[in-house]
From TrEMBL:
Annotated source species: Acididesulfobacillus acetoxydans
Pfam families named in the record: ABC_tran
Keyword Hydrolase: yes
Listed name of the protein: ABC transporter
EC numbers: 3.6.1.3
Origin superkingdom: Bacteria
Length: 288
């Protein structure tokens, strides 16, 4: 089955930041986690995909179509939630939903009502009276109510309590069971991605670090702990980054098997989380 989303050599330059040749693809039936530190270019990439910004170079294909020429057709099949909301604050949730419903050809009123009940959102409440977390839940309800084939989420869980976050994870897992749908999920809460993501795309400082299967990443990467004397000039090339004190070091290796072959039993190997991978990649070498 063709990919739902294809991004190839995507670039965009601003006065103080440059997104450089980002490439990844997402097939139907999968969830991709999109990670990176603040300022890495995640939101810029998502806005380029949604054609809210104009790219300098590269290609974007959604459902095999170019967003520059088929923007309306594409957005009719996408559900999206941004980290900032731009609703008419004087309107009620119900009134705002009527406006949004007119934008889509497959709006499902019963589905929307069901999500309002699930998220404990009062349909007659004015948007301006909602907390930020409740506005995010409202955005999710809108995004999930028109049979979207691609769901794009930009930090949707950062303002939600653990119960609602868990419900969202369950909703996304259910969407994955529909082999015609896919999710691109940008978040700082990497523990959520470790639960549900099939692939992880990691960018840093506007550049692609990797875009690979999550299980492969977590299998290959590892934390290594040992005596600082073992961190020789020859061994340093094994590490993406490390933290060293006079008592010992902890470092991240991108190839557990190679590191074990060269370091053997002189060090301790531990499983690396996505947080660990992001931290040591971004920080690099640190001495305390």
């Amino acid at each position: 089955m063709p990919n739902i989303l294809e991004v190839e050599n995507l670039s965009k330059t601003f006065p103080r930041f440059s997104l450089q040749k980002i490439s990844f693809s997402l097939a139907p039936g999968y969830i991709m986690g999109f990670i990176g530190p603040n300022g890495a270019g995640k939101s810029t990439t998502l806005k380029l995909i949604m054609h809210l910004l104009h790219k300098d170079s590269g290609q974007i294909k959604i459902f095999g179509l170019d967003p520059q020429h088929y923007e309306r057709q594409i957005k009719d099949r996408i559900g999206f939630v941004y980290d900032e909301n731009h609703f008419y604050e004087e309107l009620t949730l119900k009134a705002m939903a009527r406006i949004m419903a007119s934008c889509y050809s497959h709006w499902e009123p019963q589905t929307f009502t069901s999500y309002l009940e699930q998220f404990s959102l009062p349909p007659k409440e004015k948007i301006k009276k909602l907390s930020w977390g409740m506005q995010m839940k409202f955005s999710l309800a809108l995004a999930l109510s028109h049979q979207a084939e691609l769901l794009i989420l930009d930090e949707p869980t950062s303002g939600l309590d653990p119960i609602i976050r868990h419900e969202l994870i369950e909703i996304l897992s259910a969407l994955r069971e529909d082999e015609k749908k896919a999710v691109l999920f940008s978040t700082h809460i990497t523990t959520d991605l470790e639960q549900i993501a099939d692939y992880i795309t990691f960018i840093h400082d506007g550049q692609l670090v990797f875009s690979r299967a999550k299980d492969d990443i977590l299998e290959r990467y590892a934390l290594v702990k040992g005596d600082p004397g073992l961190l020789t000039r020859e061994n340093q090339s094994l590490f993406t980054g490390w933290n060293q004190t006079r008592y010992g070091f902890t470092g991240l290796v991108p190839d557990r098997a190679q590191a074990r072959l060269l370091l053997g039993n002189r060090v301790l190997f531990e499983k690396a989380t996505l947080d660990d991978i992001m931290l040591y990649t971004v920080r690099g070498k640190a001495h305390v």
